[in-house]
Design goal:
Arc Repressor Mutant, subunit A; 2 domains; Rossmann fold
């Protein structure tokens, strides 16, 4: 289940482009009530709850308010501090562009949401946004994204929680996902490479593998319900990482693994990129913090 949309302009229960939003449509309490009503309608006493982007706020709020109903909480590209997404002047400029010039605003949001994609794909998504919502609806939904704040509810979450976030996410900065994972008791953070905000853009398979560890653990190749190494680094990269952590250089690792130093150098570069660290030492420290060693 998901508590809300991936973005301000592709859902949030807005339905038809012509539907008029009510004030209660734009509150966290209202979204929590919707999740509860849906669970009741489905006869689901306990659920594994998935929240993406601003939907992560609603999912978190529901898990904090009804801990007995949430078996597991999965958050992708999520945040708890809406005002902290970007600077006030940037936020105001984006909302103003969306409200006053929806053609320009929709293209701006496409650039933010999709990451590294071609111009044709960005333009297709911009057209889809304009078909799905009016300028005023999109602006009001975007304002809600920036207004959401569930930081005080994070410590109240009791369900096992998996937080998946791309390091280069242009819409919701990675630091906000890291803060969510740090504030929820015993949450597991799985950082992924990439800049796209939408889970189906970029390396969608990596997102699926991460979420499957909780949603379908019986079909996952991991040995633990939440094992970030299985989705972040390849088996070969984990072997190289362990040898780097032991203090071996590229040539020594190459001799031990019977590969070329160039191959080892490439693996180390990939490890540093995926862990978001500029040096071998920093990458090892980050890997240890994430439980990859």
């Amino acid at each position: 289940m998901t508590g809300s949309p991936w973005s301000a302009t592709t859902g949030s229960g807005s339905g038809s482009r012509d539907r008029k939003l009510r004030d209660e449509d734009l509150t966290l309490d209202g979204e929590v009530e919707v999740i509860g009503a849906l669970c009741d309608e489905l006869g689901a006493d306990r659920v594994r709850l998935l929240g993406g982007s601003s939907g992560g706020c609603a999912a978190t709020a529901f898990a904090a308010r009804f801990p007995e109903r949430v078996e597991a909480l999965l958050l992708y590209g999520a945040y708890a501090d809406g005002p902290g997404i970007t600077r006030p002047e940037v936020r105001d400029a984006i909302v103003a562009a969306v409200r006053s010039h929806w053609g320009l605003g929709s293209r701006l949001l496409s650039d933010i949401f999709l990451g590294e994609v071609g111009a044709a794909e960005r333009e297709r998504f911009a057209r889809f946004q304009r078909m799905a919502a009016s300028a005023e609806t999109a602006a009001r939904l975007l304002e809600q994204v920036y207004r959401n704040d569930v930081r005080d509810r994070l410590p109240l979450v009791q369900a096992p929680t998996l937080v998946v976030h791309r390091r280069g996410d242009r819409a919701i900065p990675y630091r906000l996902g890291r803060e969510v994972a740090a504030a929820i008791p015993d949450a597991t953070l799985v950082p992924l490479p990439g800049s796209a905000h939408f889970p189906w853009a970029g390396d969608a398979e990596g997102v699926v593998r991460a979420l499957r560890t909780v949603l379908a653990p019986e079909s996952s190749r991991t040995t633990s319900a939440v094992e970030p190494a299985a989705v972040l680094l390849s088996r070969r990269e984990r072997e190289v990482l362990r040898l780097v952590a032991d203090g071996l250089g590229d040539r020594e690792i190459a001799e031990q693994m019977v590969v070329s130093p160039h191959t080892v150098h490439r693996h180390v570069a990939n490890i540093r990129r995926k862990l978001g660290r500029g040096s071998r030492t920093a990458a090892v420290a980050e890997a240890a913090r994430l439980g990859l060693l």
